[in-house]
Amino acid sequence: MVAAANEDTLWDGGNACGKSYRVKCLSEGGGAAVQCREGETVTVKIVDICASRCRNTIDLSREAFATIAVLDEGKILGEQKISVSIEE
Question: Which parts of the sequence belong to the Expansin-like EG45 domain (predicted)?
Answer without folding.
Answer: 1-88
